[in-house]
Amino acid sequence: MAAMHQQHPRDKRVAKIHEAIRLGNFSQGLTLSQQTLKKDPGNKHALAFKALSLRCLGKHSECEEILAQFTDEDIHVDHVRVLEQCYLEVDDSENVLRLFRVLAEKMPKDEEMQIQYFMRLSIWRQHKLAQAQATNLFKLFKKQQFQDWAIMSLYLQTLDEKTLALYCMVLDATAQPKALLELLDRDTRAELGNGQLLPRGRDRVGKLMAALKGSQQHAQLNAVAQENLAALPDDWVSYLHYLDSAFALAEPAASAGDATDDTADEASYHSSEFKPHTQFADVQAHLEKLARQEFAKSGPCRGPFLALLEFHQRRGNPWTDVEPVLEQYLEKFGSKLCCFPDLQSYLDRLLDSGHTAQFLATVASSLQAAEARQESSVKLALRRGQERMFQRYCSSLASTEEQFSSLTAEYIETLPLGADLQSTELQYADTFALLAAHVALDLFAAQVSYTSTLAGEHTTLLRAVHLLEFALTKSSASSQLRLCLVRIYLLLGAGASALTHWRMLDIKSIQHDSIGYLMLETLPRIGGCEQALGLANEGLRFLSGAEASAQEALTRAFQHNTFPMIEEFYHMLHKLSKSTMATSSTCDALRIHFMTNAKTLTEMQSGFDLVVEDMPSDEVLASNGLADNRQFEVMDDFVRSTRSVDAAYVKELNARYLRFRCRLLRVLERTVDDNVDNFAEDMTALVADLAQVDQHQASLAAAATSEFVYPFTAVYDMPESGCKGDALTELVSRVGDAARALSQGYEAVAKQLNQRLAALEAATLPSSADLEVAVDSAEILASYRLIVLRILKRLELPESVPKPRRKTVTAVREAVTTAIATTVDLLVELRDKAANINKTWLSTRSEQTFEVQLPGLTEGPQWQTSMIRAIYASIHNICNAQVGYAAVTGSKKSSRVNDCHQRARAKIGLRDINDCPVAVSGARGGFSQLIFLKTALGPFIFALSL
Amino acid sequence: MTTLRPFKADDLWAFNRVNLDPLTETYHMTFYLQYMYTWPEYFTVAESAAGTLMAYVMGKAEGVGENWHGHVSALTVAPEYRRLGLGKQLMADLEDISEHRHHGYFVDLFVRKSNDVAVELYRGLGYEIYRTVIEYYSGANSEDAYDMRKSLSRDPEKRLMQPTGKRIQPYELEND
Lengths: 946, 176
Prior knowledge:
The complex is a heterodimer.
Chain A: H1 12-22, H2 26-39, H3 44-56, H4 60-68, H5 80-88, H6 93-106, H7 111-123, H8 127-141, H9 144-157, H10 161-173, H11 177-188, H12 202-214, H13 218-231, H14 236-250, H15 280-296, H16 303-315, H17 319-333, H18 339-352, H19 356-372, H20 377-394, H21 401-414, H22 430-447, H23 459-474, H24 479-492, H25 495-504, H26 511-515, H27 517-520, H28 529-559, H29 563-577, H30 580-596, H31 601-614, H32 618-622, H33 640-644, H34 647-672, H35 679-694, H36 697-704, H37 727-762, H38 768-794, H39 803-844, H40 863-878, H41 895-908, H42 926-944
Chain B: E1 3-6, H1 16-19, H2 29-38, E2 44-47, E3 53-62, E4 69-77, H3 86-101, E5 106-112, H4 116-124, E6 128-137, E7 143-151, E8 166-168
Parallel strand pairs in B: 4-5, 6-8
Antiparallel strand pairs in B: 1-2, 2-3, 3-4, 5-7, 6-7
């Protein structure tokens, strides 16, 4: 109850009222105050006591009526504390502060009153006003104490939600979990401010659990995690904390090294309702109970089932324990698309322990059970899709044509189930088409070797293209189908079509940095130089703008006191400014410019000048200070071995290559400028870089087996579909479309090459790049013929095919044949022309002689040839990748060079030295330098791009 | 098995499986960063046990007086994780923040008129079509948007979400 802390009133009547109230006799206080007011209606002191008596008697409305009579004019120092007490009884701080503000204004020279006002402001946490009042006090009375009060008030102003969040962050970063727990506890008790300052909810619980874990308070953590799971049974973080703490409690020996601190079990965090589980049996029983509860519900809560799997795997429990959990999970979620990614992490460990067959049998029986339950056709189809994914993931057998056909058939069969889906939704059948396409990619990879040209096996890949193009007409929103198609088009060398689909994915902004590599790394190698340059420039523009945005955000985060973001923004700035995409794009841009435009040394010099400036410094490169921001897991091929490739390892490999590429560019820049003072040192450094890459040779070779480069530029544009009728007819029609498009593409390429050859004939000195084109033309012709034959074969239908469909196919076949005839003629002409040019050019070089030596080993007559020798020797040593068209030849070669190239040819599978155009002449001069540089830089970076 | 946590700057490099959906816009960096430093509590991501981003929601608090409300700027779920209630979970989180941390009167959002699936999802969560914004979505696929609203406890009569049937121009939104 109210306690009075004021001086005894001088007025005897009022003093009696005061005494009665002080003794808790409020009725008497009311009576006395009424009597006094009757005699002296203007006695505000008595009126104030009447209000207080009413308040204490619970008569609030009557009290309020009286308080309302007190205007600012009526407020007086004699009764201010009585009025304050009236307001305090109902926590009305606003009016308390009003009382003292009014008096402070009325009595500006009264130090005591000014102090009283400051104190009220401080008590009610009006720290900003309190700071101003303290400053006012200091001005008025010149006491240092008041300045200290102002500083303290300033400090207290900072103690808000954001300050505490910052403090939490600091405690976390400095590994002070106990201090963090104490802070949370004080905030819970509202000891840090006006009520709880830190937000409630998951952020707070997350902080609490992390702090408990950090301070090894496993019992409390276990109880808190249980409590959280009771409310949020799908909260994975809570499951992890629950399991971690339970294992620490149940396996004390295992965690003996950790100083477990469960002495504070009775602390406020420990929920009395949830006792810690210290035995594995209790943990399993608890998780099984949660799973049972969720199994009975219709909701999509997967947490308990996956937590049980996690538990069994951590414990190393037998298959008999795991199987029932899988059965439950599959029954409930087997028709969901999340099924495969959910179980994928557990599968690796299951498969390692030799339970592949049992797992697949469980999946199969789950499907059978669903059929027995007569689940809807859609759900059954989705289950089959998931089963197919698991089969692919678990199988160690090679992909087959039968698999492709079977998946395609399932796709066609399932497609009608999604007839009613909206255009923005994904088709239920998509999984089958995607899997079929990946099977096609497997077949392609198995059949095509590095030295293959387009004469390799493409049939299945082309069928996959048809299937994916068709599937995208039904499910245009599927990014996985489209990404897979982009990949296949790139493998086919159909850069234009790949780019079309890439554009349809609407890749922009940060995506340039994270997944732009999917296009950038391949497009230039298949001739899409200009397009690649465009993409690279888009990416570079993004990075430049994003860096400015991140810098701005950093300052804004300070302004908004969004402290946790500040560190993230610093990290973001590093990622943007040191992005390997930027460095790689810069190298690519130069390379592309070099291969396509630079015809003179001056042009090359200007290109170097522009690009080398933008490259990271040697220090950054040497310290691996680059940030590889690529997202690798954007495309899933449902193959276990792919997952086993460590992203960090691949990124490291990329960094090493990039370092080499940058160094090479710098060396070449100096070479172009005839600055060869440090040539030997440069070469040593280059060779050292290559030696580092060499350390990763085995992995590189493994990664390289999935890369195929086809040296032709095809315009493989698919016309818009106007096909009608059943799916199979549409598919057949698509084959025709593809053939026509392919033909058009080849024709366009042939025309393009023809133009270049015509220019070449007129030129006095052809460049190596042009000669590469000449060689390509022969390969293109051979590959084109092969593909055409296969397409035509595919269009041969047995007699049993009904007439309408036969008619369609025949029409398509005729159109294809017509298109082919023209294209073949053009290509034959092109090949012959190219061969003649090549022959002529070779004859003009026949008298050139040169020596190639490693620097430091022998004195060489030409520094250019020394450098080439070093580079080629390194290439020879480090990679199984194709060296492209690069080779050094001449009519008179030293035995050393011959030997080197014999080995190189053997390794890279070049059929004949004459397959490669002459690229180097020994004569020093502008042209030889040009040729040398194109040879040294182009193929090397070209072929070694990862 | 979902972990809801604040969106981190690093997530921008990892959200492609979510953002490659044609109906999910990939904004310029300034846009994301602004949400991160101004309304971090409103930018929440759902992460799988394997650390994959499954979905995210970004929002903000805006308006004055009775128009003080939470706004859903983007809600998107990766295809593999749809029909698992993640959208509902993230919306509930955003509504909770709007209600208890910002003390808003309602939550609103814009959705393409043609996006029936999303409109039905929001209806199921208690949202009503308050009005139509003409050609709110510009560019190649320009389209009207529905302005959908759901009242919070500060609007017990649900007065502020009552459909008005109005069709307004985008610039009129600035007057709200």
